[in-house]
Amino acid sequence: MKLKFICGLSALISCVPPAGAKGGNYANYIVRNVVQYGVASWYGGRNHGHLMACGEPFDEYSMVAAHPTLPLGTEVKVTNLRNGRSVVVRIMDRGPYIAGRAIDLSRAAANLLGFTLRGLAPVRIRVLSTPERPAGRPALRPRRHSFELAASGNERIAAK
To answer: Where are the domains of the chain?
Structure first.
């Protein structure tokens, strides 16, 4: 009985959107002409080759970035407010997780913006394009559970 209750509760919780998400799935929203000002940092080195939030390996020499809320796949133009240099990057990861930071850029993007030695730079982030949800695809898909309860309630059976 306890196991059924816990599974039911976890099924209910899995349908609740994360905090700050309108509707629970960031990729369902079209965001354009949005401008954000903040501090940019860069990441590379020890993260090179690790998987990003999008599922691809991180390449510090590609034009990618991490942003806490923009949909993955969003293309943004980042302008260094100190020197006026701009780059276009694709949001492929989540972060930065340090208060006061707006975006984490790859080493290549930070190098083109001219702040790899300094580490931080005041920037303007302008959204250029966002990925669109394919037609006919539901806005929210329920999560699949890795198991289902057997008739007796005490055994687990792998879901197909």
So the answer is: 27-129
Q: Where are the beta strands (DSSP E) in the chain?
A: 35-43, 64-66, 75-80, 86-93, 101-106, 120-129, 147-149, 156-158
Q: For residue 129, name the pLDDT band (cuts at 50, 70, 90).
A: very high
Domain covering 27-129 in this structure, CATH number: 2.40.40.10
Q: Are strands 101-106 and 35-43 parallel, antiparallel or unpaired?
A: parallel
pLDDT tens digit sequence for 1-52: 444 444 343 333 333 344 444 433 444 455 567 899 999 999 988 888 889 9
pLDDT at 32: 62
Place of tokens 């369902």: 28
Q: Phi and psi at residue 26, in whole multiples of 5°?
A: -60, -30
- The CA-based dihedral angle spanning residues 87, 66, 139, 137, taken in that order and rounded to the nearest 10 degrees: 60
DSSP character at residue 47: G
Given a contact cutoff of 8 angstroms between Cβ atoms, the answer to whether 102 and 40 are in contact is yes
pLDDT at 31: 56
What residues have CB less than 8 Å from 31, skipping those under 6 apart? Answer: 70, 71, 74, 127, 130
